[in-house]
């Protein structure tokens, strides 16, 4: 079995309220599903970028949630 296919951008549906916890969680799920295939999540963000910008949604990296903070 090969690496998982990245989801099509239209498969990822985010709610429209900016900075909603559900939006953050949806992006976290996509990042987690990519697992060891680190090239998939950047591809998903690249494909979603116009929609994220239009809706005012920040990525995990922009929110500082991409790293574990102790």
UniProtKB/TrEMBL annotation:
Protein origin, superkingdom: Eukaryota
Pfam families: COX5A
Gene3D superfamilies xrefs: Cytochrome c oxidase, subunit Va/VI (1.25.40.40)
Compartments it resides in: Mitochondrion inner membrane
Keywords: Acetylation, Heme, Iron, Membrane, Metal-binding, Mitochondrion, Mitochondrion inner membrane, Phosphoprotein, Transit peptide, Ubl conjugation
Region feature Disordered, mapped onto this chain: 1-21
Any single GO CC term annotated in Swiss-Prot or TrEMBL for this entry: mitochondrial inner membrane
Pathway as given in its UniProt record: Energy metabolism; oxidative phosphorylation
InterPro entries linked to this entry: Cyt_c_oxidase_su5A/6, Cyt_c_oxidase_su5A/6_sf
Annotated GO biological process: mitochondrial electron transport, cytochrome c to oxygen
Keyword Transit peptide: yes
Record note on quaternary structure: Component of the cytochrome c oxidase (complex IV, CIV), a multisubunit enzyme composed of a catalytic core of 3 subunits and several supernumerary subunits. The complex exists as a monomer or a dimer and forms supercomplexes (SCs) in the inner mitochondrial membrane with ubiquinol-cytochrome c oxidoreductase (cytochrome b-c1 complex, complex III, CIII).
Family: Belongs to the cytochrome c oxidase subunit 5A family.
Function: Component of the cytochrome c oxidase, the last enzyme in the mitochondrial electron transport chain which drives oxidative phosphorylation. The respiratory chain contains 3 multisubunit complexes succinate dehydrogenase (complex II, CII), ubiquinol-cytochrome c oxidoreductase (cytochrome b-c1 complex, complex III, CIII) and cytochrome c oxidase (complex IV, CIV), that cooperate to transfer electrons derived from NADH and succinate to molecular oxygen, creating an electrochemical gradient over the inner membrane that drives transmembrane transport and the ATP synthase.
Protein name from the UniProt record: Cytochrome c oxidase subunit 5A, mitochondrial
Taxonomic lineage: Eukaryota, Metazoa, Chordata, Craniata, Vertebrata
């Amino acid at each position: 079995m090969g690496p998982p296919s990245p989801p099509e951008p239209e498969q990822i549906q985010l709610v429209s309220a900016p900075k909603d916890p559900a939006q953050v969680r949806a992006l976290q799920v996509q990042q987690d599903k990519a697992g060891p295939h680190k090239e998939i999540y950047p591809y998903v963000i690249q494909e979603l970028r116009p929609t994220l910008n239009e809706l005012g949604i920040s990525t995990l990296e922009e929110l500082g949630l991409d790293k574990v903070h102790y």
